[in-house]
Amino acid sequence: GRHSYMSLKAIVAxxxxxxxLDEAESWNDSxxxxxxxxxxxxxxxxxxxxxxxxxNSYTLPILLTKWQDDFEPNSQxxxxxxxxxxxxxxxxxPAGSTRRSTNIVSLGEKNWCHSEVEDKFSSELQELxxxxxxxxxxxxKRVVNCHVALLAILKDQPERRKGTFIGMGNAxxxxxxxx
Length: 179
Known about the structure:
This protein is α+β, with helices and mostly antiparallel strands and about 180 residues long.
């Protein structure tokens, strides 16, 4: 395609190579963590339980958020000349973690069709949710079982509408009709 694309598997491998023991051990102390931490929301804990069902041994959940948006690279004023599109993921780390956790998955032009990138990402994500997914963990200094899961999808309103076929108003699948 016409987009750049960084493999999700490569991004996860890089992220885990620099992971710390404190990050992994935060799952053992989930009861004492504040409920406001993204990792320990009801959805985060549900994904932790799902990860434990993947293998016959402890499986480290790797939770991430997905974000996409358009941007203007050449000026401060939106003149719609050369508008770009960015797709990134952010690994959810426990409070107090200071290492960088956001990675660019893909870049492209705003008006290009991004479905090929979405399909490739979804396919890789499904593979990383199968049993026996293993990566080297820098904190443990060994290969561990992992389960990668999407905790949240973040989009601005226009992208959310396009992705869910809501349109730009309250009509069924298109924008609101002006009469």
